């Protein structure tokens, strides 16, 4: 049977949209950040959706080779359109985003260019960035090795200075020193920022960045001494397999001395290692930039999964309230709401904290320019923590959204398996999430000890200065309604974060040494760091609500979502809140009661709240999440596109299936 076209023009979700109690356009502006941002995003999303080259519906069925070729085609076409249409940087970034296929260009723009900007001298930036901006060279970021990822100081690649030729000799001395993972390294990049141990005058000065040409600009073949390839297929069928993550070995490859990134330190013509007067904290600026893009990606991925699960939940019906009566939309089940609506709230929470991080990056950049480095460690800890908490929560939520959609969520055509596979590694790259949380914890321990000696903490740790009050305060909540008070919510989150940090600091001080204590208590330290980061997200959501928010009912909906975000965390981490004495068991159960009421209030607005993300069907890429809710005909059509359905009798029937069946038949007749 051929695929039938059952799809009509009807909006199967119209009834859901009619129950919304707020202005969806106003919510789109709150989500995007400005009216301008909504317009640019719409324009770029439509540009991608209407271009046949950017089609993505078949990619989970392509072989790895075909998928990679498809990525090269899309990236080249995107660049062509960028030039033809004179797109601004903002527009070009959105164009790439809506193409929605990981590829070498991501590394080029998000890692290679910022690394040179952050670590290159003005002269180096002028030379390399000019070529990079025009795509005359394609770059990647080659730090991780087979043997070491998180422990950057353990990298083994060497860059030994040879004063007789004024060159560095780049070398991979062991198997484990092979570069391993860099995106775009395997097949595409012509250049890389390679991290290696700098050795000059017989001394090892530790890890530094070097710009290396890897492949010929004429025929793309690897340069002499460079062995390079792809590391092989990755998790999921399509997903990250569009990216050529690579392996590279270097055999005494010579590069000119001026290809060492020399903004922070240099090697002179004579081979002397000299620190420049630019402080090391400058590197934090690049990290803040990269991590704020990852937080933005996390909120986008989470909102896509939630959009799919909410729309599908409104269409899918199972069981009736009474025999023979109409069936119930699964979204009406309280268990679905308590599993799904915290993700809806988290999507908005992560979006707003991401918008704030963008501001933080501008603030950090301005401070760096005026040589004010005072808030950098705090900004670094805060972005590391936010990267960790938002990406972990997003990966967990996408997986749960698959379950929320039942069996159909497990189909590639739901879009969820691919979304999960693409976003899962964000928990690992740019810093493993647990390793990052331990860095945050280290910073918190330092802050606790500084507070004890009278120093006033800054930025997102400023609340720790209120230590006298927060260590003793009792929550003012007495009724279910009291949990609507943002000040009451913020106070319990502050008290919990501070008390967990102080408990850790006290326990570390009892250990034979600080390092032993830190190691022994690391699971508790990770939890203290999570508590601190969750406080930041709750605080930024509450601050967002204090802004001018236009549109009928928009602010009211956001207040409800903010309440859900905070109260579901209290419910989930009640053990923390109880054990630190921040809430009583009764207050915990009042929070849960309030949460149930908020779910009921959000239910009639749920579909409109995901509409406000403003995603095209193309970008969403899901039969279950279609705007018109025509789920079943979409699923049916998608099934017929599968290569297995190209023939009625399957390939392999003659060689394998037929002889087996015949033989069994013969046996049964004996
Ligand atoms: C899809 C993808 C793309 C990538 N792209 C790039 C790229 O472009 N360029 C590049 O250079 N790299 C890239 N990477 C590599 C990435 O940066 C590393 O995988 C990451 O830094 C983690 O290092 P690792 O894999 O060695 O993990 P490990 O450090 O070996 O971690 C293994 C486990 O040990 C735990 N652990 C490690 N240290 C500690 C500690 N001190 N305390 C407690 N627990 C600890 C971790 O939490 C983890 O659970 C990419 C990785 C992936 C998956």
UniProtKB/TrEMBL annotation:
Residues 23-138 form the Acyl-coenzyme A oxidase N-terminal domain. Its cofactor is FAD. The active site is at residue 430. Transmembrane segments: none annotated. It holds the Pfam family ACOX_C_alpha1. The keyword Lipid metabolism applies. GO terms for molecular function: acyl-CoA oxidase activity; FAD binding; fatty acid binding. FAD binds at residues 144, 183. Residues 284-445 form the Acyl-CoA oxidase C-alpha1 domain. InterPro entries: ACOX_C_alpha1, Acyl-CoA_ox_N, Acyl-CoA_Oxase/DH_mid-dom_sf, Acyl-CoA_oxidase, Acyl-CoA_oxidase_C, AcylCo_DH-like_C, AcylCoA_DH/ox_N_sf, AcylCoA_DH/oxidase_NM_dom_sf. Residues 485-662 form the Acyl-CoA oxidase C-terminal domain. The keyword S-adenosyl-L-methionine does not apply. One of its GO terms (cellular component) is peroxisome. GO terms for biological process: fatty acid beta-oxidation using acyl-CoA oxidase; lipid homeostasis; long-chain fatty acid metabolic process. It is found in: Peroxisome. Keywords: FAD, Fatty acid metabolism, Flavoprotein, Lipid metabolism, Oxidoreductase, Peroxisome. Belongs to the acyl-CoA oxidase family. PANTHER family: ELECTRON TRANSPORT OXIDOREDUCTASE, PEROXISOMAL ACYL-COENZYME A OXIDASE 1. This is Acyl-coenzyme A oxidase. It comes from Triticum turgidum subsp. durum (Durum wheat).
